[in-house]
Every structure is written in structure tokens, then in C-alpha cells.
Design goal:
CATH class of the largest domain: Alpha Beta
Bound molecules: shikimate-3-phosphate, phosphoenolpyruvate
Number of helices: 12
CATH superfamily of the largest domain: Enolpyruvate transferase domain
Strand content: 25-35%
CATH architecture of the largest domain: Alpha-beta prism
Oligomer: single chain
Number of domains: 2
CATH topology of the largest domain: UDP-n-acetylglucosamine1-carboxyvinyl-transferase, Chain
């Protein structure tokens, strides 16, 4: 995919539905009684993997142009899949579904693509095993393929070493099938969509600080869900609007849940001109975001804000390369175990464009302000890397050629069309 410089990005955009919320809506809808209707569902490959898995376990899921209808069968209504559950490229599908599968009365096997086969699953195998689950990594390397023999589970308290919503959600979902209360404490608060949505479906999930607890055997009832725009997808247009001269972009109905909205704070700290309109606090908070061209300066990003912007760090790294001064990103070791090693891949590719950047054990140091030039970028089949460099290509001189740029289909199939729609 070749990207050339653009100016004057102007217009209004509704970014696709939130990936985390779309996954959860299908999963919880499948475990609920009655029909769950989901509008603005993300039709990205990852969420389609979740749909495929639940269809294989006997759930009728209909798609039409405007919504998804999940005809749930209740907490104990899934049936044994007759072949491997294909999780594709999706960490969220793998880790959340494992918590559900651990408490079923059947055996299942999960497998996916080459990337997911390298991602760490011990982080869910450990707490699930202490709940009494039987979950085995077939190649004994702590990765998929995983074989899960459903068992009777016990409630536990789990002190998670990582701030990960996927780990937290996996344990809470297994907790629905346990014999007592299950709780998870994490070092920093990660995204809380599971807690919010499970309660909306009728479960009893309580949160105190960084601990979330669930009462077992809830009755979940089918609900209507309007998925807000994904702030992780909005991030590319926030960056493009701030950095491209003469731009003014209105992003409609973006999810601004505080456990996800760290990028807005970082942009403000960097000097961004962003205005929020039409804020709504019903359910998942949303707002329209007006983005205007700004001159940005470097900042430091560390500690508790990291989980609230973890998927936006590739885009932030590019923004930092165009900003004046130094940006330091720390406490983000998790970037190494995403769809690619996002520290190494961002550093290598930004260096190819002429940036002054170094990788560290848990982040990056970026001395911004050097003029960047076109280059061939290896996306490593990582959607967030591809989109971040597409934005870099709209700003720098020369052509940015992104190898395997179509991997954006994982979370944003129409990304390139949306990017080009703003410069007419
Ligand atoms: O729960 C979720 O929906 C997600 C949690 C995060 O992963 P971790 O739980 O590994 O931090 C994030 O990076 C991922 O894109 C989606
Ligand atoms: C890390 C991501 O997703 P997942 O963990 O679901 O593969 C992401 O979308 O950036």
C-alpha cells in the first residue's frame, strides 16, 4: 500500500465500532437468554473470528446491513464444537473464550494464525488452572493451540502480575461457572468493558480500585447494544488531523471510557487542539471530537496511563517523531507481546524514515522534530503498525510503501478509504 503526502484533511468521520466492545457483545449475547441486537458492530476480521467460534458452538448469529442479532442460549447453552475453534489473529477472542470454555461440559481446541501462535497464554492458563480448569498448550510452549477440558470451577482471588483486560475478563468469565465469588486485582486498572457490559446483561460484577469481583451463575438476558466508535481507530485520525497542515476533522460518537482515553490526555499534554462535543455518559461514555492542526511537543508517558492507551502507542510514537523535543515511553513492556513486537517494529520502521528513536526494555525514547522521509515499511502483518505508518506517510515527504498493508482488515477494513475521503 503506497501512501503520499496530504494536506487540508477536512470532513466528518464515524469510525467503526469498538473492537473490545464488539467482541464482548457477541460473547455475552451468546451466553444470555433471548436475542441481543448489536448496532455499529465492528466487521473487522478479529470480531468475525469471535462470531465464527460461537456459531461453531451452536449459537445462531444473523448479520444484516445495520445490525448483528445473537440468539443466545443461556449460560449453559453452548454445544461441543465438532472441530477446532479458529481464533484467527485475535488475542481478545482467545483469552476471553478460554475463560468461558473452562467451565463447559465439553472438550474444545483453539488455534489460529502464526502471530497468535506466539502470544503468551500462560497468563490465562495459570489463574484458570488454579480455578480447577484443565487447559493445556498442545506444544507445551504456553501458546495456542490450547486444549480445554471443561470442568467444575472454584472461585478464586487472583493477583494478576499484568494490567490486562484480557486476563481480567478471562478470569471473571470463568468465575460465572465457579462455586463462589471470583475476583481479580491488577497492578493498574485496565479497560473495564467486561464489567460494564456483564452488569448490563444482568450479572453482579463489583469494582473497587483495581479489583473486580463476580458472583457466579448469573442469569444474563439479551440486550440492545449500540457499539460506540473505537477510540483506538479514531487515534489515527486524531494524529492525522493534528499533524497535517490545514486540517479540521470531526470524529463522531467516539468511545471515551476513561480506561481507554489516555491518548486524549497525552495529546493535550503535547499541545493538541482537541474539543469534545455532545458528551454522553449513559453506559459507555462517548463524545464527538473536533481535531485541528496543532504544533506538538514531546512528553513522558508512564505508569497507570499505559493500559489506557496501550494500543495507541504505535501511533503516539509516530506523533512523537513529528513533535518538537523528546518523548519518553516507559512501563509498556506489554507492547512486545502484541500482534508483533511493537517496540522493535516501530523503532526499526521509524529509523528507516529518518527518525531519532531508540527502543528500551519497556518503551521508547524519541527525539522528535527531524524531517522524516518516505520508506518501505514492514508492517509485520500488524494492523496498528500499518495504520500508524499510513498516517506518517500523509505527513512526510516522499512515498511510504507499507508491506502487507491490507492487514488493517483486522480492526479497520475501510481504513484507507476513510483516510483518503478526507482530502477531496
Ligand atoms: O480486552 C480487550 O479487549 C483488549 C485488551 C488489551 O490487551 P491486553 O489485555 O493484553 O492488555 C488490548 O491490547 C487489546 O487490543 C484488546
Ligand atoms: C492487541 C490487539 O488485539 P488482540 O490482543 O485482540 O489481538 C490490538 O488490537 O491492538
Amino acid at each position: 500500500m503506497e501512501i503520499k503526502k496530504q494536506t487540508n484533511l477536512r470532513g466528518t468521520l464515524t469510525v467503526p465500532g469498538d473492537k473490545s466492545i464488539s467482541h464482548r457483545a457477541v460473547m455475552f449475547g451468546s451466553l444470555a437468554k433471548g436475542t441481543t441486537r448489536i448496532s455499529h458492530f465492528l466487521e473487522g476480521a478479529d470480531c468475525l473470528s469471535t462470531i465464527t467460534c460461537f456459531r461453531k458452538m451452536g449459537i445462531d448469529i444473523e448479520r444484516n446491513a445495520s445490525e448483528i442479532m445473537v440468539h443466545g442460549k443461556g449460560l449453559h447453552g453452548l454445544s461441543a464444537p465438532d472441530s477446532i475453534l479458529d481464533v484467527g489473529n485475535s488475542g481478545t477472542t482467545t483469552r476471553l473464550i478460554s475463560g468461558i470454555l473452562a467451565g463447559q461440559n465439553f472438550i474444545s481446541e483453539l488455534d489460529g494464525d502464526d502471530s497468535i501462535r506466539t502470544r503468551p497464554m500462560k497468563r490465562i492458563m495459570t489463574p484458570l488452572t488454579s480455578m480447577g480448569a484443565d487447559i493445556v498448550s498442545k506444544q507445551d510452549n504456553g501458546c495456542v493451540p490450547l486444549v480445554i477440558h471443561g470442568k467444575t470451577l472454584h472461585g478464586i482471588h487472583y493477583d494478576s502480575p499484568v494490567a490486562s483486560a484480557q486476563v481480567k475478563s478471562c478470569v471473571l468469565l470463568a468465575g460465572m461457572y465457579a462455586d463462589g465469588i471470583t475476583s481479580v486485582t491488577e497492578p493498574f486498572l485496565s479497560r473495564n468493558h467486561t464489567e460494564i457490559m456483564l452488569n448490563y446483561f444482568g450479572a453482579k460484577v463489583t469494582s473497587e480500585g483495581t479489583t473486580a469481583s463476580i458472583v457466579p451463575e448469573p442469569t444474563l438476558n439479551g440486550r440492545e447494544i449500540q457499539v460506540p466508535g473505537d477510540i483506538s481507530s479514531a487515534a489515527y485520525f486524531i494524529a492525522a488531523g493534528l499533524l497535517t497542515p490545514g486540517s479540521e476533522i470531526l470524529l463522531k460518537n467516539v468511545g471515551i471510557n476513561p480506561t481507554r482515553a489516555g491518548i486524549l490526555k497525552v495529546c493535550m499534554d503535547m499541545g493538541a487542539d482537541i474539543t469534545l462535543f455532545n458528551e454522553s455518559t449513559e453506559g459507555e461514555p462517548t463524545a464527538d471530537l473536533l481535531i485541528r492542526t496543532s504544533s506538538l511537543k514531546g512528553t513522558t508517558i508512564e505508569g497507570g496511563i499505559i493500559p489506557t492507551l496501550i494500543d495507541e502507542i504505535p501511533m503516539i510514537a509516530v506523533m512523537a517523531a513529528f513533535a518538537d523535543g523528546t518523548t519518553v515511553i516507559r512501563d509498556a513492556r506489554e507492547l512486545k507481546v502484541k500482534e508483533s513486537d511493537r517496540i522493535t517494529v516501530m523503532v526499526d520502521n521509524l529509523k528507516r524514515m529518518g527518525a531519532d528513536i531508540e527502543g528500551t526494555e519497556d518503551g521508547m525514547i524519541i527525539h522528535g522534530g527531524r524531517p522524516l522521509h518516505g520508506a518501505t515499511i514492514d508492517s509485520h502483518l500488524d494492523h496498528r503498525v500499518a495504520m500508524s505508518f499510513a498516517v506518517a506517510g500523509t505527513i512526510c515527504d516522499g512515498t511510504v510503501d507499507i508491506l502487507n498493508g491490507d492487514c488493517v482488515k483486522i480492526s479497520y477494513p475501510e481504513f484507507y478509504n476513510d483516510l483518503y475521503s478526507l482530502n477531496k
